[in-house]
Amino acid sequence: MESFKFEAIGTLFEVRTAHPLGDGLEWALLNEAERFDWVWSRFRPDSLVAQMRANGGRWDLPAESSRLSALYSRLYRVTDGGVNPWVGSSLERLGYGPGYELVPVGGPEPAPSWDAQHLWQGAAVVLAHPAVLDIGAAGKGLLVDLFGAILEEAGHSEYLIDGSGDIRHAGSEPIRAALEHPYQPDEAIGVVELQNGALCASAGNRRAWGDGLHHLLDARTGAPVETVVATWAMAEDAMTADGIATALFVCPGADLVGEFPAIEWLQVFSDGHAEGSPAFIEGLFT
Amino acid sequence: MPSPSTLRRFTSQPARQVVLGALAGASLVGAVAGCAPSNVSAGTEGRAPSGSVPTTATSASAAGGSSVSHAYRDGTYSTDGHYTSPNGPETVGVTLTLKSGVVTDVQITEHPTSANTRLFQKHFASGIKDVVVGKKLDDLNVGVVAGSSLTGQGFNDAVSVIKGEAS
Known about the structure:
The complex is a heterodimer. Chain A is built from eight helices and 15 strands. Among the domains of chain A are: about 55-125, no CATH class; about 170-280, T-fold, CATH 3.10.520. In chain A, helix 5 (about 140-155) runs antiparallel to helix 6. In chain A, strand 1 and strand 2 (about 10-15) form a beta hairpin. By secondary structure, chain A is α+β, with helices and mostly antiparallel strands. In chain A, the strands form four sheets. In chain A, strands 1-2-6-7-10-13-14-15 form an eight-stranded antiparallel β-sheet. A four-stranded antiparallel β-sheet of chain B has the order 1-2-3-4, covered by helices on one side.
């Protein structure tokens, strides 16, 4: 397999393909990452969402916005507001904002309700007041899917895209994926097989900045989730798997299955016990 | 076909409640949720705990130190639970292991008769594992690691700065 590694949207990506990408396709991937970052990043002052934060008002977003808002709408409903795209202000309050200050300016605050004051539907955002749109729950998975579309359009039918925990696979050979131990990065707690689908992992303790602060918040309280320490999800596409992995921090997997019947899921709790669907539970080490 | 609202109501409950509601012998099946009672007190001595006749009873070791206060003999019991789904009558198999009156293991066997039932029963079978166990990645033959240990330079740099300021 050929391998192309790069850093984008603040994290590391690896694209493995059966045949070399060539300069043109590598450039296309980097260009797509840059475009995506310029639209959606809360961490750069010139992004579209940064301008929304500063100004409010009406905004037209690119095409991928429709997929994202539809997924967020389902997640918001099924988690009863635990996943909320307007959680950005809660994150920034705890220090997870532009410039990575990583210093809280106050105690946790709930995200604003996704209501008439904060419209996001299809490609349109209409804000009665400035607000911070945060697509952290599913954005990286979406970018992985966008990369996949670029590869497929260029004729690559066998590939693996690994966006630091958000993995998309295509091809006739399944791949064995280790589930990284939440506390021991050189260990795994199990192995699952992935083929023609996506596997996404989420954990709070890796991007933690002291005293229980990490980026996985319950939007209803604005506080980091303490009971769930790591989650995994499999779905047809990486955006959905990423969103489910995030939602598993604030919602039982069984509830999510009601809304997303095709998923597989795993939750590891702070007491070390795990709950999940059979595909994951059977893959855990005993 | 169930209506969408039926489907949602049926599947959106936590697994343990669905199983509890769906099967006879609720006191036993509660152990599926990992919160096994310290002993199983309902029922009649010597009977299969679910109230139905066990189809198998293997590896029984009742003689070994089991006190009279335990209503059930040690062993592995299997039975089928029956319930009515939106698709009609359905069956799910339950196998459990009793030791000194405590449920030590529960297995749910799926007998789906339709696609919808398969979905529901897959949901029932959602597992609970006591404590996760780690193995060294070097010892595993895997193609990829699904985790979050790789973080971008921006975050790592910021953490380094904070650590530097804190020390």
